[in-house]
């Protein structure tokens, strides 16, 4: 097991989410940056759906109570094990009693910590992903215990995998036309694709709001399906980009839909970062 000495700013256990329960109003949830989550498991030789620890902005301090192996992907928060700096995207063997901590942020916003065999939290609706109202715990807490499978032999990287990190600093967000895109006028379309947007302080696992406004004279729509990556245009002209914990339906015009890779990129952005939308033809 792992003792949580300090939980960090906001750390949760996530896998690839709950994909078959949207008709019941259950959000998909899962890792915000699917690419980083899958890569962490791949380097360890885990199944891609093994649960990982998603760490946001400020890393936790964790004491390992058994031997295991870990991989850290996503943002670089200067991780160290037993007071020795370790690298992202690299398999690291951990000895019982060693402490993992994080320090100065270098780039990105969300880190993924994978352990051999995955985190062994409760399974609810076929997923270990934490979500309020679904799982008993909604985040990692100080003094808590994270269950893992002990590993009694040293591990080697499962395979040689080329890891992309350029997307962490990418500003361009690739999008498709949303169902209500055709209702926009030329001026609105021009602003969507020819100005930068700033990530507002209102950003979390449910949605990212953008500071810049687009004049909106569109009528509301009948409550309809929304997905992670759906971009809604509110009556006030604010754009809301739905993320992994988003609701399953909404009544604002759905003007854009992020590509899967764009959701990963946006998940690594924080307040004040700027993005620009690029339409996929």
Description of the molecule:
The relative contact order is 0.19. A hairpin with a 3-residue loop joins strand 13 and strand 14. The protein has three helices and 20 strands. The model has no long low-confidence stretch (mean pLDDT 95). It is mostly beta strands. The longest helix is centred in the first third of the chain and has 11 residues, at 34-44.
Number of helices: 3
Strand pairing plus helix content: what structural class?
Answer: mainly beta
Rg: 20 Å
The shape, in one word, is elongated
SSE arrangement:
Elements: E1 2-6, E2 10-14, H1 34-44, E3 52-56, E4 61-64, E5 68-76, E6 80-81, E7 84-85, E8 92-94, E9 99-101, E10 107-115, E11 145-146, E12 172-177, H2 186-194, E13 197-203, E14 207-213, E15 224-225, E16 230-233, E17 238-242, E18 249-250, E19 254-258, H3 260-267, E20 274-279
Parallel strand pairs: 12-20
Antiparallel strand pairs: 1-4, 1-11, 2-3, 3-10, 4-9, 5-8, 5-10, 6-7, 6-9, 12-19, 13-14, 13-20, 14-17, 15-18, 16-17, 16-19
Please summarize what this structure is:
With 281 residues, the protein is mainly beta. It has 3 helices and 20 strands.
Characteristics:
281 residues; mainly beta; 2 domains; seven-stranded mixed beta barrel; 3 helices; 10% helix
């Amino acid at each position: 097991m792992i003792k949580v000495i300090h939980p960090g700013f906001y750390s949760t256990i996530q896998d690839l989410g709950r994909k078959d329960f949207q008709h019941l109003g259950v959000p998909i949830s899962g890792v915000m940056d699917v690419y980083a989550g899958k890569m962490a498991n791949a380097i360890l030789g885990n199944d891609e759906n093994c649960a990982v620890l998603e760490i946001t902005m400020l890393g936790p301090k964790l004491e390992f109570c058994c031997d295991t192996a870990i991989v850290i992907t996503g943002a670089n928060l200067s991780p160290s094990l037993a007071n020795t700096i370790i690298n992202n995207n690299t398999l690291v063997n951990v000895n019982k009693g060693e402490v993992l901590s994080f320090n100065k942020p270098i780039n990105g916003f969300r880190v993924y910590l994978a352990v051999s065999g995955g985190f062994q939290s409760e399974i609810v609706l076929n997923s270990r992903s934490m979500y309020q109202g679904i799982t008993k715990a909604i985040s990692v807490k100080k003094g808590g215990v994270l269950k893992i499978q002990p590993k009694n032999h040293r591990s080697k990287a499962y395979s040689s995998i080329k890891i992309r990190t350029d997307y962490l600093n990418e500003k361009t967000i690739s999008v498709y036309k949303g169902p209500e895109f055709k209702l926009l006028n030329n001026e609105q379309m021009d602003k969507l694709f020819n100005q930068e947007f700033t990530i507002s302080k209102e950003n979390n696992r449910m949605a990212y709001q953008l500071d810049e406004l687009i004049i909106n004279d569109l009528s509301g729509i009948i409550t309809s399906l929304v997905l992670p990556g759906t971009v809604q245009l509110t009556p006030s002209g604010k754009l809301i980009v739905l993320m992994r914990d988003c609701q399953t339906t909404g009544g604002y015009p759905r003007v854009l839909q992020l590509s899967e890779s764009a959701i990963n990129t946006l998940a690594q952005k924080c307040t004040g970062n700027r993005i620009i939308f690029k339409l996929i033809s």
